[in-house]
Structure to design on (315 residues):
């Protein structure tokens, strides 16, 4: 198994763990949002390893940067309406 | 209980479909026909060193115009839906003042991030990156400014003007391609220049700069209308 395959497997495992954290019901919504940003971050490193730097840049800037804060802004707006 | 069983059955079915796909997958020994065409003819057709940029801006330029339009519609709908919510005044109770560290750091970082965004979209035809990536990076500079000082007044008018002027110029360049060169969004309306230099590949750097400004303005307007709740 080459280094590239090994790193891809580790990153995929990281993505699955972060996704599981994101959907686990005991945690707060803020932690879920951060975990879904981490999924995007792992995915962008994976795109870079798989020789797609353009997609990796898009994923890092939009997926893990802007979308995470978009969710936080929306969370701030809906907080007033009660729990969940 | 039965709901959960149905969900698991659906997931298992999906897993089976993917398993079948994965087992039947064989990597192609060579590039397929369209990929081979792009790999062989991009340099002579468009003069761009980054094949991805040539595909996005020239070969599939109409699709990119469509994507930018979808993003524009999203920004417009977000602004329209949230416009009514601005009326409730009064300070929000949970807003803490931002720290000195964030203030000083953002004063240093915001110009650098914006400059890097401009670099990414101006070099889109040479290195990985391009209009969408550069625009998103510029919007993250804007996001940092918003986080540092949420009460700051941003000019909606400037953002809207940037957005519409670059969109109009994008379509105008596409039409100029029809009139002067081979078709809509043909990049050969400008001289091709020397391969690999910054002013090369015809209209691709110009189009990418316009896409970058447009995407940056659209993302900024979405972030702005979402964060701007107490005024």
């Amino acid at each position: 198994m080459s280094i590239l395959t090994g790193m891809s497997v580790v990153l995929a495992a990281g993505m699955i763990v972060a996704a599981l954290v994101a959907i686990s019901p005991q945690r707060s919504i803020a932690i879920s949002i951060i975990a879904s940003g981490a999924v995007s971050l792992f995915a962008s490193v994976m795109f870079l390893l798989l020789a797609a730097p353009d997609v990796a840049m898009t994923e890092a800037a939009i997926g893990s940067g802007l979308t995470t804060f978009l969710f936080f802004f929306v969370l701030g707006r809906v907080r007033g309406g009660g729990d969940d | 209980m039965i709901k959960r069983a149905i969900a698991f059955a659906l997931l298992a079915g999906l897993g089976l479909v993917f398993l079948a796909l994965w087992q039947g997958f064989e990597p192609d020994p060579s590039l397929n026909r369209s990929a081979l065409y792009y790999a062989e003819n991009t340099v002579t057709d468009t003069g761009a060193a980054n094949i991805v940029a040539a595909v996005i801006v020239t070969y599939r330029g109409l699709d990119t115009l469509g994507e930018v339009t979808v993003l524009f519609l999203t920004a417009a709908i977000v602004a329209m839906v949230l416009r009514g919510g601005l009326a409730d005044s009064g300070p929000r109770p949970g807003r803490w003042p931002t720290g000195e560290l964030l203030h000083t750091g953002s004063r240093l970082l915001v110009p650098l991030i914006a400059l890097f965004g401009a670099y990414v979209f101006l070099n889109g035809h040479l290195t990985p990156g391009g209009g969408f990536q550069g625009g998103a990076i510029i919007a993250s500079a804007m996001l940092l400014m918003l986080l540092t000082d949420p009460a700051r007044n941003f000019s909606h008018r400037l953002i809207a003007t940037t957005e519409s002027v670059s969109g109009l110029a994008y379509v105008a360049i596409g039409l100029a391609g029809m009139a002067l060169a081979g078709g809509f969004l043909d990049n050969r309306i400008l001289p091709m220049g020397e391969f690999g230099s910054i002013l090369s590949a015809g209209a691709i750097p110009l189009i990418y700069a316009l896409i970058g400004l447009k995407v940056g303005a659209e993302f900024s307007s979405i972030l702005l209308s979402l964060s701007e709740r107490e005024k």
Notes: Residues 3-81 of chain A form one domain. Helices of chain A lie at 3-23, 29-49, 53-78. The first helix of chain A runs from residue 3 to 23. Chain A has one domain: 3-81.
